[in-house]
Amino acid sequence: MNRDRRTTRSALGTTRRSATRLRRTLFGGLLGACLALPALPATATGAPAPEPTGEGRTAAAFREAARASEVPRDLLVALGYSETHLDGHDGKPSQARGYGVMHLTDNPDQHTLRTAAELTGLDPAALRRDTRANIRGAAAVLREYADDLGLDAAERRDPAAWYPAIARYSGAGNDSTARLYADAVYTFLAQGVRARTPEGEQLGVPRQRITPDRGRYEDVPSLDARPATGGKQTADASVLSEDYPPARWIPAAAGNYARGRSAAIRTIVIHVTQGSYAGSISWFQNPASGVSAHYILRSSDGEVTQMVRDGDTAYHARSANPSALGIEHEGYVSDPSWFTDAMYRSSAALTRHLADRHGIPKDRAHIVGHNEVPGNDHTDPGPHWNWNYYMSLVQSGGGLKLGGSPTDFSGDGKADVVTFTHGAAADVYAATSTGAGFSGTTVKWNDYFALSGEVPSSGDFDGDGKDDIVTFTRGSLADVYVGLSSGSAFAGGVKWNDFFAVGGEVPATGDFDGDGKDDIVTFTNDANGDAFVALSDGAKFGAGVKWHDFLAPNGEFPAVGDVNGDGKDDVVVFTQGTRGDVFVALSTGSGFAPAQLAHEFFAPGAEQPRVGDVNGDGKDDIVTFTSNADRDVYVALSDGSKFGPGVKWNDSFTPAGEFPYVGDFDGDGKDDIVTFTKNASADVYVGLSTGSSFGAGAKWHDLFGLPGETAF
């Protein structure tokens, strides 16, 4: 890579692209001549609403269907987005033989298409292919479910009351999967939706806080919930996968795979579900489907579910089944909006783990698409799957977006290391720094914290000089738990916020108001690029408040650090990709200022960026690990208003597959670098900072941060 391109502009003065959004009116317009369908019969009559002009066809269809069936409009849109991202795929069926924007199904165990035809009087062909008919049909089915539940007019106006109807619409074969499906829909209601149809029409659902009335599903084991300590795991809702601890274990139907294998595992096959996450799980649990895969990943946040053990033969790739592991990715081949950065990174971490575990080379000869398996007529993952980016993540070790956080858990002025095992045990181990190594015996500091799928981090949340741990459950719960440090252990997790970092948002920590207590921030990481902050009062986090409306959009890498040395942490955003720009938004103490371009080429592609004060001048700098065959480490120092040129500070640190971090491990006021090998040896190496370079890596610990754990 040509490092001569790592230059910076003369000042932090070029404003990032405008935060102006296209805020189109979502209600209005006359349907009239826009659609060729005849008027559709209503299942219930609602009071007529004004119909302003300027509305698109799909928006009008949702409004009309909501009014006719008295299903809340935003709930309909969220369901459609959860199923198909509002893409009807020209009437082509999904894997589970579902059709249209609302995924009306016609398979042996689910007949919402037939039910919609009976309720509306519309021809099934129209329900399959015409978006207006499809949305109206789904709304009619939901209204029938609501009537079966006995919802009155007032309850029908409340989106929270529809939860059991949404769960039933899933067609799931068991209640846990039905709850997973409904939780996904309500997560989209919580985090909001901004989508574009294939025709270019934009639709949205505002971010809103709704506590769903789950009814009987409240007692159903949740695939997103924190199980009670010592609670019984069920076959449907276990949080532990024996093969990949971060994954949930939900077994496929016994007839959809074969016990054991007739050949050694030598290939990983990448699939796309052609359907939703929960719908695909349900399909693999359906004995009539005759298909399965070993793993399925969710688009919004990269959550992983295992359905067939590695040692068994899933039915996913015909001739390759005996020797292949199959990984399904939520989405549709024709729609790249499903291929989120969260899913790419989570899938890469899974693939890397499987390759290491089974001795599979990490190359394109052994990690292949379904379309590349001989004897198949499938096209997935399709032309929108970014193989170059994906393989760079597999080979570099790219994972969670953790750009840096303080880790002095003992409060002695030296940064320590911590690892979260996740899985059913959810243990937390810490090794404190002696200044020349990490304590020889790893000690369990907490025995139930950061379950599988949660995002852990650290910070001094009570301002006592000892860094604590925090975990973000994300998903539809969006709880935040903190374990305070005593200097030798972490206390049990206490809920400090009950609605923060929803869905697949990217959380981080930092002292944004400069009061000595670390706060939390979450980046929606989508097209909106909103950033919400919740301040700490020492015992809890306040409500999330929007501090910026265009930071780290569309999968960019956000990090936190005090760039100008004023005692308040700022936001640093790495665009990565081919541009490699770096933007900074300074904290005012009550908001983030407009983002300014601070460097034009740093941490491109799948490099691993971090933020820390590596020269000890009180201002945080930026660091990037190439994590390739070169193993280089580059630094760009902050002068308080911009970052200087990228300079190589180490030429052999963090090869592909390892996870690097930063911290002041010897307590001299300069942040050093650390890398976790994340292999069977699980070694930890540190390179100390001299203020102008990093020393050679020295082993400070020899069994810490095992594969599948989160260590920093």
From TrEMBL:
Domain of life: Bacteria
Pfam families: Amidase_2, FG-GAP_3
Enzyme class, first EC level, given as a word: hydrolase
Annotated region (Disordered), positions in chain: 211-236
Listed SUPFAM superfamilies: Integrin alpha N-terminal domain (SSF69318), Lysozyme-like (SSF53955), N-acetylmuramoyl-L-alanine amidase-like (SSF55846)
GO biological process, one term: peptidoglycan turnover
InterPro entries per UniProt: Amidase/PGRP_sf, Amidase_domain, FG-GAP, Integrin_alpha_N, Lysozyme-like_dom_sf, NAMLAA_amidase_2
Keywords: Cell wall biogenesis/degradation, Hydrolase, Signal
EC identifiers of the protein: 3.5.1.28
Residue ranges of domain N-acetylmuramoyl-L-alanine amidase in the record: 254-382
GO MF entries: N-acetylmuramoyl-L-alanine amidase activity
Reactions catalysed according to its record: Hydrolyzes the link between N-acetylmuramoyl residues and L-amino acid residues in certain cell-wall glycopeptides
Protein name per Swiss-Prot or TrEMBL: N-acetylmuramoyl-L-alanine amidase
High-level lineage: Bacteria, Bacillati, Actinomycetota, Actinomycetes, Kitasatosporales
